[in-house]
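Weekly sync, protein design subgroup
Attendees: M.S., D.O., the rotation student, P.L. (late)

Item 1: inverse folding check
M.S. brought a backbone from last month's batch and wanted to see whether the design step gives back something sensible before we order anything. D.O. pointed out we never logged the input encoding, so this time it goes straight into the notes. Structure tokens as presented (120 positions):
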């Protein structure tokens, strides 16, 4: 009877410990829980935003393309046109990250997007 109880208890411990190892909710690294849904791409993070690169240049990321923002009036008009405009400014984005988005042209005041001749 003791042997049967010990065997059942041992098998139960093995089953319980093996079952929780592969659970993604239990994966922890430096006290931070890692889940698959937490990954976000640069496109998702920057789409529709006014961004300032680490080199000090300003751009609008729209439709997966980068538009140069050469005037404050242009960026102000764009931010007024979108919901929560002031919350859609991202600063200090690395140039390498921004290079993922092709430059299409320039955004002008009154939301005019002027394409570069080279991209037409």
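Designed sequence read out in the meeting:
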């Amino acid at each position: 009877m003791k042997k049967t109880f010990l065997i059942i208890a041992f098998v139960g411990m093995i089953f319980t410990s093996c079952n929780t190892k592969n659970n993604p909710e239990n994966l922890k690294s430096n006290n931070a829980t890692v889940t698959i849904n937490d990954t976000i791409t640069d496109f998702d993070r920057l789409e529709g935003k006014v961004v300032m690169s680490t080199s000090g240049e300003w751009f609008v990321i729209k439709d997966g393309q980068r538009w140069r923002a050469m005037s404050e009036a242009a960026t102000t008009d764009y931010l007024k046109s979108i919901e929560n405009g002031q919350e859609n400014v991202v600063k200090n984005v690395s140039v390498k990250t921004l290079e993922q988005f092709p430059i299409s042209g320039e955004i002008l005041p009154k939301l005019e997007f002027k394409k570069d001749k080279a991209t037409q």
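Discussion: The radius of gyration is 25 Å. Helices lie at 2-21, 42-46, 72-81, 95-98.
Action: P.L. to compare against the previous round before Friday.
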